[in-house]
Specification:
Number of domains: 2
CATH topology of the largest domain: Aminopeptidase
Radius of gyration: 29 Å
Protein name: Peptidase M20 dimerisation domain-containing protein
Largest sheet: 6 strands, mixed
CATH superfamily of the largest domain: Zn peptidases
Oligomer: single chain
Organism: Monosporascus ibericus
GO molecular function: metal ion binding; metallocarboxypeptidase activity
CATH architecture of the largest domain: 3-Layer(aba) Sandwich
Bound molecules: 2-acetamido-2-deoxy-beta-D-glucopyranose, zinc ion
Strand order of the largest sheet: 1-2-5-3-6-17
Pfam families: M20_dimer, Peptidase_M20
Family: Belongs to the peptidase M20A family.
Length: about 575
């Protein structure tokens, strides 16, 4: 007792009045320090620092156009042919033929070999074999898990890591009820003089056919790669890719080792116009994913003598609470949207001054206003906001079986897309907190993400089987020769230097989710662009189409990218 008192008030005890004054002095001192810090931060931000503009531009360096240097007469001829009407006509026929194979993948597909609906993929493979004879004679090709297609064009220099190009053969099913809404039947491959129509035209047959056309012509032109080229085509991307990409990726990691590939390009984002500039935004990250199943167990009984709150009422309260506590927009330093904002600030004439003021600058670390930036940027709308915000949506609900029986088991499924920089465990922790609050109120037990069996009077939380952390972010440095610099240089060679490159973020997931071990340099990117076509070609909906110009650009891009990667001085 005595010791404790000594510790608390060493020396002579002060009079109560002196103590009170000291307390106020401390408080005022602290307040003054905070205000001073605020003032210094604001002053630093307000000062127009001499090197600021140059520094800002350096935050988003643009590489020079990169054109393959090897120019044999037949390669020259090939490049001319790629720009010819003859090629255009042939390419239209090849694309149209590919769309005519209805390679739909259904959510409820059974095992391969048992469920006959998979067999359409045989037709797809046969179509490719017939259409690209040189690819199928000059390259090694193998089938992985029956329908996965893996092509290897062996390079002469084994010290170079391979370039991997991906696409998927399958398409989203066309619902019977929507067939009538199509201007042209979904599997006719109709060409209207400018566009090729049909399910899969832009997602993802333009890339599948585009890659094969590029390689077919390179073989024909006598091109001999130094760097191995791998083509990896899954067949169930639209239903999560486990059978296709999942198996192909592990074959490739076994073959080339962890981080054994130089680069991967798969389907993804394209061109995005903002602030008076046109950006190509290859996806360098993907958000995470977690479904959480919540189950409320409450006593049953006859509804003529109900308790004040039954399972449905309690679940409703929990859902209301979940929705009342959404995730804050947050721009973590690795989020590509922050990089995109910097590119806007560096190059775009109409970049909003308000956003510019909130961007992290060259001197601040302590004065970061990251979250204010995220909040301001989020005002551009939900499409933008969810590029840097974990989303939550209760999507499925059930409970109760009969009008005179109280619900004993009520279930809800809450879907989340996890922000870059956060983790599925953040989602779990937040939901556990909220469930505990409700549980306390109604005297229920919480089983949060454990294997324990459900008990009466409980709330159980379980993570769904598709949980996926946010993807590792692809490096976008252009110092020296990097995969991103080759990709950027190729794109600017094709489209000109008015077009800017900036890091992008995929709101959904692609087949690349299985390939994280194969390389850090993964780009989700649709290289074909027709300035006349707005939007994404109606993917996943009626009247999907691809512009022929965009498709031809796709072929040209792959052809150039393969050669540029071949000449790139990097492992
Ligand atoms: C391409 O097709 C169009 C329309 O069928 C035809 O008029 C044109 O002559 C063809 N061009 C070449 C070079 O084959
Ligand atoms: C809460 O539940 C426990 C057993 O589950 C019971 O012993 C206790 O009396 C309950 N308390 C209230 C306030 O209902
Ligand atoms: C093609 O897709 C675009 C979306 O990118 C859509 O606006 C258009 O109506 C579709 N059809 C044609 C012929 O462009
Ligand atoms: Zn796709």
């Amino acid at each position: 007792m005595l010791e404790k008192e000594t510790l608390l008030s060493p020396g002579r005890p002060e009079a109560p009045r002196t103590q009170k004054r000291r307390y106020w002095l401390h408080l005022i001192g602290l307040l003054a320090a905070v205000l001073l810090l605020r003032f210094i931060c604001d002053a630093l931000d307000a000062v127009s620092w001499g090197g600021y503009e140059a520094w800002m531009v350096a935050q988003c360096p643009q590489v020079e156009p990169l054109v393959p240097s090897q120019k044999t007469p037949s390669l020259r001829e090939m490049d001319n042919y790629l720009a010819s009407n003859k090629f255009r006509n042939e390419s239209i026929a090849r694309m149209s033929g590919a769309v005519q194979v209805p390679s739909q993948s259904y959510d409820d597909l059974g095992p391969i070999g048992e469920d006959k609906r998979w067999d359409i993929m045989y037709e797809m493979a046969a179509y490719l074999e017939k259409t690209f004879p040189l690819v199928h004679s000059a390259l090694q090709w193998e089938k992985v898990n029956t329908h996965g297609l893996l092509y290897t064009w062996e390079g002469s220099d084994k010290s170079l890591k391979p370039t991997v190009l991906m696409a998927h053969q399958d398409v989203v099913p066309v619902a019977e009820a929507t067939v009538g809404q199509w201007t042209h039947p979904p599997f006719e491959g109709f060409y209207d003089g400018e566009y090729i129509w049909g399910r899969g035209a832009s997602d993802d047959k333009t890339n599948l056919i585009g890659i094969l056309e590029a390689v077919e012509l390179l073989i024909d032109a006598g091109f001999k790669p130094a760097r191995t080229l791998v083509l990896s085509f899954g067949f169930d991307e639209e239903i999560s890719g486990e059978q296709g990409a999942g198996r192909l990726a592990s074959v490739l990691v076994d073959r080339y080792g962890k981080h054994g590939a130089a680069v991967i390009v798969d389907e993804g984002s394209g061109v995005y116009g903002a602030w008076g500039s046109t950006f190509f935004v290859p996806g360098v990250a993907e958000k995470g994913y977690i479904d959480v199943e919540i189950i409320v167990r409450m006593p049953g009984g006859h509804s003529s003598v109900p308790p004040a709150h039954n399972g449905i009422g309690v679940m409703s309260e929990l859902i209301t609470m979940i929705e009342a506590n959404p995730y804050e927009p947050r721009l973590y330093s690795e989020n590509p949207y922050l990089g995109f904002l910097k590119c806007g600030a560096a190059h775009s004439p109409e970049f909003p001054p308000k956003l510019r003021k909130l961007l992290p600058t060259h001197r601040d670390t302590a004065c970061h206003k990251k979250d204010k930036l995220a909040l301001e940027a989020a005002k551009a709308g939900d499409l933008i906001k969810y590029l840097f915000t974990t989303s939550l949506a209760p999507d499925v609900i059930s409970g109760g079986v009969k009008n005179n029986a109280l619900p004993e088991r009520t279930r809800v499924l809450v879907n989340h897309r996890v922000n870059i920089g956060e983790h599925s465990s953040d989602v779990k922790a937040k939901l556990t907190d909220l469930a505990e609050t409700v549980a306390k109120k109604y005297n229920l037990t919480v089983h949060a993400f454990t294997d324990e069996a459900e008990t009466p009077l409980s709330i159980s939380l379980k993570a769904g089987p598709l949980t996926l952390e946010p993807a590792p972010v692809t490096p976008t440095s252009v110092e020296g020769v990097t995969p991103y610099s080759v990709l950027s240089g190729t794109t600017r060679a094709l489209y000109g230097t008015d077009l800017l490159m900036a890091p992008g973020l995929m709101p959904g997931n692609t087949d690349t989710r299985y390939y994280w071990d194969l390389t850090r340099h993964i780009f989700r990117f649709n290289p074909g662009w027709d300035p006349k076509q707005e939007g994404m070609g109606n993917i996943h909906t009626v009247d999907e189409n691809v512009s022929v110009l965009a498709h031809i650009r796709t072929v040209q891009w792959y052809s150039m990218f393969i050669r540029n990667m071949d000449e790139a001085s990097m492992a």
